[in-house]
Write a structure and sequence with these properties.
With 126 residues, chain A is of the alpha+beta class. Chain A folds into two domains: 85 residues, hypothetical protein PF0899 fold, CATH 3.30.2320; 39 residues, no CATH class. Chain A is built from three helices and six strands. Chain B contains eight helices and eight strands, in the order E-H-E-H-E-H-E-H-E-E-H-H-E-H-E-H. The radius of gyration of chain B is 18 Å and the shape is globular. Strand 6 of chain A pairs antiparallel with strand 1 of chain B.
Chain lengths: 126, 220
């Protein structure tokens, strides 16, 4: 629901890196998006496009890479949970350790909004 | 002209977390315990903070940050209860973040405070993702939102230590089952504390006050 502010955040991070590298244009951005964030990738791309208009980031491809939730449990289990055929809400409701059934394991991934890397066009021999 | 790829690894939520940690450390230095009060529009966030201010104001220093699209209205209400308050107008933003709170903290008399209430923007979705530097997260829903409101917004209940089902005195009138709402809360998060409250009948208000006092950090 706050895709606009997230798009602004991504835009600022990418623009900073682009300016530091004297980029002529940013070709693409790989963004890791955890499946447990409240961010809709389609809305995010739409907002990003709107924010980037008229800047170095116009026509930049925003590649959204979904990141599945992973947990660490007291019982020693570390790793993924079964997310197949589960809606967002079922996923949260049923979040539990697949080994021992603990309903409150620690989340180790799934909540990222991570600008992983950026591809850009630069002048000269940089 | 050639292409380069730069590894960045900058996480927007992690950056907010880092700033939130900084806010928390500042509050700790001043011995202030902060409560992030979240809930839908009209759930009773402002009223429950007012009740706490009235009941606790004589023995603890209380301050508030009022976050809203137009925050001045709630800020005026808090000030009438002698609570120093910073209004945070978020404009079109649907949640507070650590950066906004950082600047609000600069404008509060932290030396005089023991308890800080941060009233978030009325919304059960967006505030979930953002830490502000609070010590405790509280979510408030009212029976008038419908008794399926909890199961429709599970994530926020996962992240809070207290859930309040408010306005239980009018449950019958709005055809809502308050006990079902409490059950939903506990099913989603077995570790959470859940309360039913009503300003009109006074039900649960003592427990709300006890929760606040019981969760204050050790003093200077």
């Amino acid at each position: 629901m706050h895709e606009y502010s997230v798009a602004m955040g991504v835009y600022e991070v990418v623009l900073n890196v682009a300016l530091k590298n004297n980029a002529a244009r940013v070709i693409s951005v790989d963004l890791e998006l955890g499946e447990l964030t409240h961010i809709n990738p389609v809305q995010l791309s739409f907002c990003f496009e709107a924010v980037a208009k008229g800047s170095l980031l116009e026509r930049t491809d925003l590649n959204v890479i979904k990141v599945a939730p992973e947990i660490r449990c007291k019982c020693g289990y570390e790793g993924s949970i079964n997310t197949e055929q589960q809606t967002f809400y079922d996923l949260i409701l049923n979040l539990r350790c697949p080994k021992c059934g603990n309903p409150a394991p620690e989340l180790t991934s799934g909540r990222e909004i991570n600008v992983r890397d950026i591809k850009m066009e630069v002048d000269g021999n940089a | 002209m050639h292409d380069i790829r730069v590894e960045v690894g900058f996480d927007i939520l992690q950056a907010n977390e880092a700033l939130a940690e900084k806010n928390r450390a500042l509050l700790d230095d001043f011995g202030v315990t902060a409560f992030n009060i979240m809930g839908a529009i009209g759930s009773g966030k402002t009223t429950l903070i007012e009740l706490a201010a009235d009941r606790l104001g004589d023995r603890h220093g209380i301050g508030a940050i009022a976050g809203d699209i137009v925050a001045d209205i709630d800020a005026e209400r808090f000030k009438r209860h002698n609570v120093p308050t910073v209004p945070l107008n978020t404009g079109k933003e649907c949640h507070l973040d650590a950066h906004l709170v950082e600047h609000a903290l600069e404008r509060l008399p932290l030396d005089d405070l023991d308890i800080l209430f941060i009233e978030n923007v009325g919304n059960l979705i967006c505030p979930t993702d953002y830490s502000l530097g609070e010590h405790h997260r509280v979510v408030i829903v009212s029976v008038s939102e419908g008794d399926d409101i909890v199961e429709k917004h599970p994530m926020i209940f996962k992240t809070c230590s207290l859930a309040i089902v408010n306005k239980v005195d009018i449950a019958k009138a709005v055809n809502a089952d308050a006990d079902k709402m409490v059950d939903d809360v506990l099913r989603i998060n077995p570790r959470i504390k859940a309360l039913k409250t009503s300003k009109t009948t006074g039900e649960g208000v003592d427990d709300w006050i006890k929760f606040i006092e019981g969760n204050m950090n050790v003093h200077r």
